[in-house]
Amino acid sequence: MGNCWPSQPHGGVTPTTTGNLSTATADTSQTISSSTTSFTTSTTTTTTSGSVNSSMNSKFSVASGDQPYPTGQILPASNLRIFSFADLKAATRNFRPDLVLGEGGFGKVFKGWLEEKGNSKSGTVIAVKKLNSESSQGMEEWRSEINFLGRLSHPNLVKLLGYCLEETELLLVYEFMRKGSLENHLFGSECLNKYHFLGGSAVQPLPWDIRLKIAIGAARGLAFLHTSQKVIYRDFKASNILLDGSYNAKISDFGLAKLGPSASQSHVTTRVMGTFGYAAPEYVATGHLYVKSDVYGFGVVLVEILTGLRALDPNRPSGQHNLTDWVKPYLHDRRKLKGVMDSRLEGKFPSKAAFRIAQLALKCLATEPKQRPSMKEVLESMERIQAANEKPVEPKSRSTNTRQAHQAVHHRSPLKDSSYFTKLLK
Fold first, then answer.
1. pLDDT, tens digit, 9 for 90 and up, residues 87-138
2. What does UniProt give as the signal peptide span (predicted)?
């Protein structure tokens, strides 16, 4: 992520959260304003032993909202394990630098090995997220992860195994996601954020069928959040979609998640937090957060999946810095769409299916929240596209000049100057 800027909500309503909007770019983020969040999901107290006592269920009810999603559930009580700092220090070999998987706003993520008691040869590979003492994030984001992932269980949500709180040390322990993040696969070696592959091995471009599988998996996770408890995820982006060894997508990082509006309300009002380029326009402009604000972020990721380009990149030619603003006219026309499809697909994608995904992305990117489909509708549309099982067509040979021009459009370069975003937000 890039630099972070605070954004005030309008209308004189006292916000329930405060925080930052960060840019989705290729450099490492710098926080320039503090992030403090008020949560109402549960009442949590911390004991001197480092455990967290919480009912975790003051707002979670299986009866609320639509019918619970069939493959997910709201656990009656959290079953998270409380780890000692010594446990996690040993699991990560004293947080050895060569075990770093990546780094986000909260802190570094380490690969670890959790041995079974009495059997050093048997155990579980884990991912341990450790708070950076200089991070603007802290207890509130840590607690939010525990409150939500401690109770919500779904195949397309990353599994939180436990946590640690000892003095100033805040850590979270997750299942290990072997294929890293969608961001790694879409943007390759330029990624500087989360979940690098150990040993610096090359990331292979994703074929069309895997891209569609990942998008559907992520849609299932969001649909579950929206239909089970009206949880607004608030920071949907490629770096927060993690992949297991079979490329099953799981949504991670619930530090900014928030319970949605009550039945009598259309939205909640907050300070703007999240990642610029993915955040919905009504949220950026007013601080009004709708369940369908997540749908907009999903639409942005769909466009990234189609094009292989970042949501924001000031190093692209003028007029192309903001991906969705630039690409929208191409999404309306099947022939034009081919000109902006990811060149690393080498033309091997079903044109009809790709166009249908582009049309769906346009619906998700509607300016007004009411005009966007629900995530349940998005998921059903994508499953129908997948069920059609259209086979990729081998592309016709193209001239050298055409190929070079296409590669120029898909130029990838690390962020060198983030001043563009400062001007954009003024």
1. 999 999 999 999 999 888 789 999 999 988 767 678 899 999 998 887 777 8
2. none
Residues in binding site for ATP: 130
Q: Which residues, in sequence order, are CB contacts of 119 under 8 Å at separation 6+?
A: none
Determine the topology of domain 4-394+409-425 in CATH. Answer: Transferase(Phosphotransferase); domain 1 (1.10.510)
Q: Which distant-in-sequence residues (6+ apart) come within 8 Å of 106 by Cβ?
A: 129, 131, 132, 135, 137, 141, 142, 253, 255
Q: Is the four-CA dihedral 131, 40, 153, 180 of positive or negative sign?
A: negative
Q: Which residue positions form the known binding site?
A: 130
**Closest Cα to residue 358, out of 380, 379, 393, 329?**
329
Tell me the C-alpha distance between 73 and 225, whole Å: 10
> Which residues belong to the active site?
235
Q: 313: closest CA among 9, 27, 16?
A: 27
d(CA 352, CA 358): 10
Give yes or no for a contact between 195 and 109, defined as CB atoms under 8 angstroms apart.
yes
**Domain locations in the chain as residue ranges:** 4-394+409-425
Residues 6+ apart with CB under 8 A from 258: 17, 39, 231, 232, 234, 268, 270, 289
Q: Which long-range contacts link 107-110 to residues 24+ away (Cβ below 8 Å)?
A: 107/131, 107/132, 107/135, 107/137, 108/132, 109/194, 109/195
Between 208-228 and 293-307, two packed helices, what is the crossing angle to 10 degrees? 170
DSSP per-residue string spanning 181-199: BHHHHHHGGG--SS-PPGG
Q: What is the pTM of this model?
A: 0.79
Q: What is the CA radius of gyration of the chain?
A: 21
Q: How do beta strands 274-276 and 21-23 pair? A: parallel
Residue 65 and residue 58 in contact, taking contact as beta carbons nearer than 8 Å: no
- Residues 292-349 have pLDDT tens digits of 999 999 999 999 999 999 999 999 999 999 999 999 999 999 999 999 999 999 999 9
**Would you tell me how many other CB atoms lie within 10 Å of the CB of residue 351?**
17
Residue 346 and residue 19: Cα distance in Å, rounded? Answer: 41
